[in-house]
From TrEMBL:
All residue ranges annotated as the NADP-dependent oxidoreductase domain in the record: 17-293
GO molecular function: aldose-6-phosphate reductase (NADPH) activity
A Pfam family per the record: Aldo_ket_red
PROSITE patterns, sorted: ALDOKETO_REDUCTASE_1 (PS00798), ALDOKETO_REDUCTASE_2 (PS00062), ALDOKETO_REDUCTASE_3 (PS00063)
Residue stretches in coiled coil: none
Protein name, UniProt field: NADP-dependent D-sorbitol-6-phosphate dehydrogenase
Organism, as annotated: Elaeis guineensis var. tenera
SUPFAM superfamilies to which the protein is assigned, alphabetical: NAD(P)-linked oxidoreductase
Active site: 49 (proton donor)
Site (Lowers pKa of active site Tyr): 78
Residues annotated to bind substrate: 109
Keywords: NADP, Oxidoreductase
Keyword Transcription regulation: no
């Protein structure tokens, strides 16, 4: 069984999970059932991935054939940018698609509200100049209080944020009645973000690393980014520990006390990514890893949104 981190809400979250972004609908059933057999208990979804219904069918089958019980699994999904003014309806829509009565974790996917296009549609409407149609009437505070309502309604056990920087995270801590349990951010050896990670952890917010392997081939295809999987320092260390480069990077993430949710569409990689609990990287080698930070973000939605939200 994978190790867990106890969230500020009191619930336990497995430190290793499987992300379902860009997982093709037709392969989801096999991948999820295989993952559960291997030992995965944490699945990271989002309305925006447009595959919640397929994930829901796979989970329903897993419960039906006795592979796992609902309470054994930790299921996360996320509020899309176009639904900030419709939090309860969006959450209920995700629950219906996932065929679940409650979520273990519900995240605000990005700290920005955009034009509403209908619950569950998760489009990113662009204005006449091809720029993301940002809604300036809904504050993140309003969104967060609606997220808190989900907890009192029993629809969600823990709530959190995603892609928030220190400024916005601090702000959320100031206005929240229920503190965010998690901040899910891009972080990997080339984008370590130590200040943000430490700030969150200091304030009891668990950091989940999305893109924990630096995005690999997929991000190179989508965003033209460079992957840390080819880094010479990491290659040498992987050899030293007799592990693959991917395993070393995931272990590094775990030793930073961050939750890692690598995504894969290959069954053999599911096994590989799970074999990270039988070794420890020395402090000296963790320091070596610090030296390869490039402050390099690979996930660049500006490509689709016509605006760099991180500018």
């Amino acid at each position: 069984m994978a190790a867990t981190i106890t969230l500020s809400s009191g619930y336990k979250m497995p430190i290793l999970g499987l992300g379902v972004w860009r997982m093709e609908s037709k392969s989801i059933r096999e991948l999820l059932l295989s993952a559960i057999k291997i030992g995965y208990r944490h699945f990271d979804c989002a309305a925006d991935y447009q595959n919640e219904a397929e994930v829901g069918e796979a989970l329903a089958e897993a419960f039906q054939i006795g592979l796992a019980k609902r309470e054994d699994l930790f299921i996360t999904t996320k509020l899309w940018n176009s639904d900030h003014g419709h939090v309860v309806e969006a959450c209920k829509d995700s629950l219906k698609k996932l065929q679940l009565d409650y979520l273990d974790l519900y995240l605000v996917h990005f700290p920005i509200a955009i034009k509403h296009t209908g619950v569950g549609t998760t489009t990113s409407a662009l204005d006449e100049n091809g720029v993301l149609d940002i809604d300036t009437t809904i504050s993140l505070e309003t969104t967060w209080h609606a997220m808190e309502d989900l907890v009192s309604m029993g629809l969600v056990r823990s709530i959190g944020i995603s892609n928030y920087d220190i400024f916005l995270t601090r702000d959320c801590l100031a206005y929240s009645k229920i503190k965010p349990a998690v901040n899910q951010i891009e972080t990997h050896p080339y984008f370590q973000r130590d200040s943000l990670v430490k700030f969150c952890q200091k304030h009891g917010i668990c950091v989940t690393a999305h893109t924990p392997l630096g995005g690999a081939t997929a991000n190179t295809e989508w965003f033209g980014s460079v992957s840390c999987l080819d880094d010479p320092v990491i290659k040498v260390l992987a050899e030293k520990y007799n592990k693959t480069v991917g395993q070393l990077i995931l272990r590094w993430g775990i030793q930073r006390n961050t939750v890692v949710i690598p995504k894969t569409s290959k069954i053999e990689r599911l096994y590989e990514n799970y074999q990270v609990f039988d070794f420890t990287i020395s402090n000296q080698d963790m320091d070596k890893m610090k030296g390869i930070d490039r402050k390099y973000r690979t996930n660049q939605p500006a490509k689709f949104w016509g605006i760099d939200l991180y500018a």
